[in-house]
Specification:
- The chain is an alpha+beta fold.
- The protein has helices at 2-12, 24-33, 73-81, 88-105, 108-113, 115-125, 135-145, 167-178, and strands at residues 20-22, 37-41, 45-51, 57-64, 67-71, 126-128, 151-152, 230-231.
């Protein structure tokens, strides 16, 4: 955990005082402990499966259907990690969406009351340097940020080169996001009034264009998420 924290600090230029690492079983148990999470699903997502030699998706156990659903831990985990029917950037967007929904919907008091049972589950699945005595303060922090705006800065091929990232640029973007420049007031447009003493002549010109056949139109789409700073709730 210390190594992971050190690498993240080096990349981002931020000092991380506390770290929590949750494995897949721990995440599933956490969502179940809070009674599940409600999310809006925009695409059909496979549970399980793999791509065969022809690039076809086979061996799918089930599908998570589009629409607003209340997910238990198992399905929330697959919502966050499924990528065979989409791509890594869509998966990252869904993970940010899920983080925002969990923060909004978790009941800090209820979770604190369940701490003894959660501690047993967490023993093998969650690693953290947060002391148990500090948990009430963290629960209060969660309560305070619920409903507040939590902004997310995404690093994609739109703003960095993943194969050769510019770490200085990444740190600058993070600092700009944390400390945005104050908005400058734009100048008010001036209004001009013109009065005429009589009718003016107008000239109308007609233009006719003849088409000899249908024109081709090309539509391109990209699943890469925006590189702009957005609220976590808008990731869904």
């Amino acid at each position: 955990m210390t190594t992971v924290r050190g690498v993240i600090q080096e990349i981002t230029g931020l000092r991380l005082h506390y770290t929590t690492v949750i494995n897949l079983d721990g995440f599933e148990s956490l969502v179940d402990a809070m009674g599940g999470v409600t999310v809006t699903i925009n695409e059909k997502l496979p549970i399980g499966g793999h791509l065969n030699s022809a690039g076809q998706l086979v061996g799918v156990d089930a599908w998570i259907q589009p629409g607003t659903q209340h997910l238990d831990g198992y399905h929330a985990l697959w919502f966050a990690r499924s990528r065979l029917a989409s791509d890594d950037y869509n998966r990252m967007r869904r993970q940010r969406c899920l983080v925002g929904k969990i923060l909004d919907q978790v009941n800090p008091v209820s979770m604190l009351q369940k701490y003894p049972a959660l501690a047993q589950v967490a023993k093998d699945n969650i690693t953290t340097n947060i002391a148990a005595d500090d948990l009430p303060a963290w629960m209060e922090l969660v309560r305070r940020i619920q409903g507040a705006s939590i902004r997310s800065l995404t690093f994609t091929t739109q703003n960095i080169n993943p194969g050769n990232p510019n770490f200085r640029l990444i740190r600058t973007m993070i600092q700009d996001a944390l400390h945005p420049a104050p908005a400058t007031a734009s100048a008010s447009p001036t209004t001009s009034t013109k009065t005429t003493t009589g009718p003016t002549k107008s000239t109308s010109t007609k233009s006719t264009k003849t088409s000899t056949g249908p024109t081709k139109s090309t539509t391109t789409s990209s699943s890469i998420t925006t590189d702009e700073l957005v609220d976590l709730r808008e990731a869904c």
